[in-house]
């Protein structure tokens, strides 16, 4: 007979080995851990962009003059716009209606004349409001081009344009304003939520469905061994998925890492334990793979996607939803990841986030332990 | 002083135990003991409470009342101590199908803290004991049903327990493996281990030194099974030498007589159990007394204890099922039916013909290919190769036409549990294309014929099992099919419900309906006119039950059972395969 402590270690070791063998033989958990992050990163990394590139703008010049030519040139210089020129306003409007153009700038026939007379020449801007984001960008851009051009024209004529204040913005952390730089770190948080909860939500339910759990709990295997036997192998799998995601972010998408990589993985470990514990909890309560999978998506992935501030800014949500976001672990992970990738190891941001994630993990672990019984009723 | 042997202490003491799930009483006021060094059979139909009792003993459920003591430990308060002395094999093979035989054993050795030299010795002993040595590296999921059970047994025996709980270890297992499982259990018992073996097969009760007979959560008998069968002495008879029409007539006749407790068809004979004190039956065939079986005693107990159906030995019968016009030839022709799933051949060149009004059975263990054959014949599953004709219509050329001639009742009774009895009937009538007056007439005929009147408004899910089965049968025959397919229709039901069901089947066959049925119960196969024995996807023998039994007769076995015949056939088949 061996000592109780040694027996416990032996049981835990046996369970971890069993789970590992199952992972290696079951393509579905490997798919979730390694193919899912790649697909999601490619899909979101390339598919979702909040930058305006290749915005199609039509400039209608009713009366070509040198001034109008200079105006068109300043539009055409932009790398973000594709400019085409037309003579008739009706043609451009038709393009806008048909979706062939994102915006139309109209220089009326008296453009040059008014510039001459009034020192300013109003332009008309027509936008497609169904694409609100693009419309805002085109508007901002058109206004910028117009005011720069107006200043130049004024200087060329030896007059000072009446622009009292000029803002000179400096953008920190992401000077090019590449949305990918903050989307990809956020996306890693979403991916880790999905992987963590999905992986474990299926495994305990699977044991119940196949009747193996009944055989397990009829042995002297304790609660801690049962839970740890599940957590340890999936933790390793989850951290490998994390490594893959970070590598893709850096090498595929060129996102900088300005903070400490050790801290990055340390925070990820705490978050992953929480996500895995949440999956275990779902699995333990539902005891059914199908239901557990659904619940994992609805309670894990969707809140992480909507309420983490990954795409949708928390600050612009209604107050009570903002309160709700505090229960979503991904919220803290998104903020820490964005900080570590783009700003650096900023402890005043990371520490509170880390504390919140640890608390959430603890809640799910103890809830799972409380719901795991060594009985069937 | 008289030399009194030390009476061994019971391993398990069940004291006034009740278990309630919600409003349902699964077990009610049970008291019994399990002794070491013997096999105690926990016998009863599905839903009797066998699994619940085993889980209570294993400490996996908490009794609602009373207490269970295992080796001096309370099953709940001292749960961990109980788990240390009990080996438990759940009904659904509690092993990992994606792990190999050796990996499953290793896991259980880890869980039970068997290490080093002890572990190596245990593996060697158990792999030899179960004959699994050549399959160490095979995935558990790829083992046959019998080998799975042996592996399950081996895992629970890594550290020899004092009490071994086996929940239906033999269900659906082929008869050869079943016999080996029993041999292993007897060896364990000789080493002093107490074994509790639960089963729905009543013939297994006779292999136990002690039984607990459970029905609907109540203990009908506890103790030596021969105590029960001895009470039946002189009341069991067999009427031999009947032809097909004769046996059905004699059966219907016998079921109406008040002095007959039980009557059932066995091949070309009729087995009769008489009421206590009644005289020997007289009838068309030669009557001779036979040794009573455990099932006789169970049926007699159920009839006298007054259950749902005890009052009605007579079974309502549908009368208006018009037989199909005689097309001549065979209503069912299957030629070289083959079905492959990937590189696994589930059904391998199965051929048979079934005559009109014949009851044809496919007998075999789970996974042998019975249901797959049925599904192909009913057009529910495309065949890989082969041809099938139903009522002379080719399934390949006119599947819809062929399907209109058949009725199909699946293992799971495809009823809508949240619809009422009438709504189920209406729905199926509609599905068969019956409308208006024809539909109303068909529904009324089924309600009257199957005695469903008291339940028309109840949800199908809440019916007693026997009535659920009647309703499922009614739904399958509303369109008056010429051919009826029954896929394991009576798996695990109590013997009275099964008899009632077969009374319907016999009545329908008597009216010209051709019946095909699958089963893994040996005795149920004897109700059939002809039986095909299915083993690993092939029919290895096909004949009347009497002729099959006859083929196994020799000096060592003067009166073989159908199971003996089955085992002979398997052995012969395996030998032929090895030499091939």
From TrEMBL, chain A:
This is Membrane protein. It comes from the Bacteria. The chain crosses the membrane at residues 30-48, 182-204, 231-251, 263-285, 291-312, 349-370. PANTHER family: MEMBRANE COMPONENT OF ABC TRANSPORTER YHHJ-RELATED (PTHR30294), MULTIDRUG ABC TRANSPORTER PERMEASE YBHS-RELATED (PTHR30294:SF29). InterPro entries: ABC-2_transporter_component, ABC2_TM, ABC2_TM_bact-type. Pfam families: ABC2_membrane_3. Belongs to the ABC-2 integral membrane protein family. It is a multi-pass membrane protein. GO terms for cellular component: plasma membrane. Keywords: Cell membrane, Membrane, Transmembrane, Transmembrane helix, Transport. The keyword Transmembrane applies. It is found in: Cell membrane. One of its GO terms (molecular function) is ABC-type transporter activity. The lineage of its organism: Bacteria, Pseudomonadati, Pseudomonadota, Alphaproteobacteria, Rhodospirillales.
TrEMBL record, chain B:
InterPro entries: AAA+_ATPase, ABC_transporter-like_ATP-bd, ABC_transporter-like_CS, P-loop_NTPase. Residues 12-241, 332-561 form the ABC transporter domain. Signal peptide: none annotated. GO terms for molecular function: ATP binding; ATP hydrolysis activity. Pfam families: ABC_tran. PANTHER family: ABC TRANSPORTER G FAMILY MEMBER 20 ISOFORM X1 (PTHR43038:SF3), ATP-BINDING CASSETTE, SUB-FAMILY H, MEMBER 1 (PTHR43038). This is Multidrug ABC transporter ATP-binding protein. It comes from Skermanella stibiiresistens SB22.
């Amino acid at each position: 007979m061996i000592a109780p402590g040694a027996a416990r270690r032996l049981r835990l070791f046996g369970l971890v080995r069993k789970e590992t063998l199952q992972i290696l033989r079951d393509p579905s958990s490997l798919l979730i851990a390694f193919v899912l992050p790649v697909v999601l990163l490619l899909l979101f990394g390339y598919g979702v962009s909040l930058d305006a590139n290749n915005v199609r703008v039509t400039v209608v010049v009713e009366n070509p003059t040198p001034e109008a030519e200079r105006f068109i040139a300043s539009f055409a210089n932009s790398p973000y716009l594709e400019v085409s020129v037309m003579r008739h306003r009706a043609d451009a409007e038709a393009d806008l209606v048909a979706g062939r153009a994102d915006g139309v700038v109209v220089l009326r026939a008296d453009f040059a004349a008014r510039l001459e007379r009034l020192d300013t020449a109003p332009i008309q801007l027509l936008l497609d409001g169904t694409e609100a984001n693009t419309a805002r960008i085109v508007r901002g851009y058109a206004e910028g081009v117009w005011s720069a051009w107006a200043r130049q024209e004024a200087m060329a004529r030896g007059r000072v344009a009446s622009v009292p204040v000029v803002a000179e913005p400096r953008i920190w952390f992401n000077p090019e304003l590449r949305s990918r730089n903050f989307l990809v770190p956020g996306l890693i948080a979403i991916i880790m939520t999905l992987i963590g909860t999905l992986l474990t939500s299926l495994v305990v339910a699977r044991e119940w469905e196949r009747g193996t759990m009944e055989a397990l709990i009829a042995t002297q295997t304790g609660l801690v061994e049962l839970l740890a036997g599940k957590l340890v192998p999936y933790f390793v799998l989850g951290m490998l998925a994390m490594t893959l995601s970070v590598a893709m972010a850096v090498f595929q998408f060129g996102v900088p890492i300005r903070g400490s990589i050790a801290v990055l993985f340390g925070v990820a470990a705490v978050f992953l334990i929480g996500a895995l514990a949440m999956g275990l909890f779902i699995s333990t309560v539902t005891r059914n793979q199908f239901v557990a999978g659904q619940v994992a998506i609805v309670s894990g992935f969707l809140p992480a996607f909507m309420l983490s501030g990954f795409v949708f800014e928390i600050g612009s949500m209604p107050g009570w939803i903002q309160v709700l976001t505090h229960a979503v672990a991904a919220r803290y992970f998104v903020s820490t990841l964005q900080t570590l990738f783009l700003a650096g190891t900023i402890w005043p941001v990371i520490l509170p986030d880390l504390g919140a994630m640890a608390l959430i993990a603890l809640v799910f672990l103890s809830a799972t332990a409380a719901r795991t019984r060594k009985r069937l009723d | 002083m008289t030399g009194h042997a030390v009476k061994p202490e019971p391993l398990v003491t069940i004291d006034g135990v009740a278990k309630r799930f919600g409003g349902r009483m699964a077990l009610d006021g049970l008291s019994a003991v399990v002794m070491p060094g013997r096999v105690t059979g926990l016998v009863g139909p599905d839903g009797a409470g066998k699994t619940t009792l085993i889980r209570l003993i294993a400490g996996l459920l908490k009794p609602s009342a009373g207490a269970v003591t295992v080796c001096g430990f309370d099953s709940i308060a001292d749960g961990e101590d109980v788990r240390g002395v009990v080996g438990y094999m759940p009904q659904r093979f509690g092993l990992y199908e994606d792990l190999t035989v050796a990996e499953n054993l290793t896991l259980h050795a880890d869980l039970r803290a068997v290490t080093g030299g002890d572990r190596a010795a245990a593996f060697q002993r158990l792999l030899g004991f179960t004959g699994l040595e050549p399959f160490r590296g095979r995935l558990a999921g790829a083992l046959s049903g019998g080998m799975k059970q042996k592996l399950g047994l081996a895992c629970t025996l890594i550290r020899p327990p004092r009490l071994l709980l086996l929940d239906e270890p033999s269900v659906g297992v082929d008869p050869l493996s079943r016999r080996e499982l029993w041999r292993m259990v007897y060896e364990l018992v000789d080493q002093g281990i107490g074994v509790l073996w639960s089963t729905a097969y009543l013939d297994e009760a006779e292999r136990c030194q002690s039984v607990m007979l459970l029905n609907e959560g109540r203990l009908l008998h506890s103790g030596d099974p021969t105590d029960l069968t001895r009470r039946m002495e002189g009341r069991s008879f067999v009427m031999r030498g009947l032809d097909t029409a004769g046996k059905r007539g004699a059966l219907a006749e016998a079921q109406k007589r008040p002095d007959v407790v039980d009557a059932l068809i066995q091949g070309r004979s009729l087995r009769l159990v008489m009421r206590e004190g009644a005289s020997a039956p007289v009838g068309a065939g030669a009557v001779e007394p036979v040794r009573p079986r455990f099932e006789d005693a169970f049926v007699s107990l159920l009839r006298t204890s007054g259950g749902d159906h005890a009052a009605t030995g007579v079974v309502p019968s549908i009368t208006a099922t018009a037989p199909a016009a005689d097309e001549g030839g065979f209503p069912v022709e299957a030629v070289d039916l083959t079905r492959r799933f990937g590189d696994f051949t589930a059904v391998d060149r199965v051929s048979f013909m079934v005559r009109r009004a014949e009851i044809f059975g496919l007998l075999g263990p789970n996974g042998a290919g019975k249901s797959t054959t049925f599904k192909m014949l009913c057009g529910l599953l495309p065949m890989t190769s082969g041809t099938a004709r139903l009522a002379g219509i080719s399934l390949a050329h006119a599947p819809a036409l062929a399907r209109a001639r058949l009725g199909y009742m699946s293992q799971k009774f495809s009823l809508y549990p949240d619809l009422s009895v009438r709504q189920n009937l209406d729905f199926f009538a509609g599905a068969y294309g019956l409308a208006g007056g024809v539909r109303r007439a068909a529904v009324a005929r089924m309600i009257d014929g199957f005695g469903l009147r008291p339940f028309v408004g109840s949800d199908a899910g809440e019916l007693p099992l026997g009535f659920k089965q009647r309703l499922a049968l009614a739904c399958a025959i509303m369109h008056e099919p010429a051919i009826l397919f029954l896929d394991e229709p009576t798996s695990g039901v109590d013997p009275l419900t099964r008899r009632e069901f077969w009374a319907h089947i016999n009545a329908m066959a008597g009216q010209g309906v051709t019946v095909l049925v699958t089963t893994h119960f040996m005795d149920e196969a004897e109700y059939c006119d002809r039986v095909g024995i299915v083993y690993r996807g092939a029919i290895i023998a096909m004949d009347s039950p009497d002729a099959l039994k006859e083929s196994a007769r020799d000096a060592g076995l003067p009166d073989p059972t159908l199971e003996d015949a089955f085992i002979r056939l398997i052995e012969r088949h395996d030998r032929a395969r090895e030499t091939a």
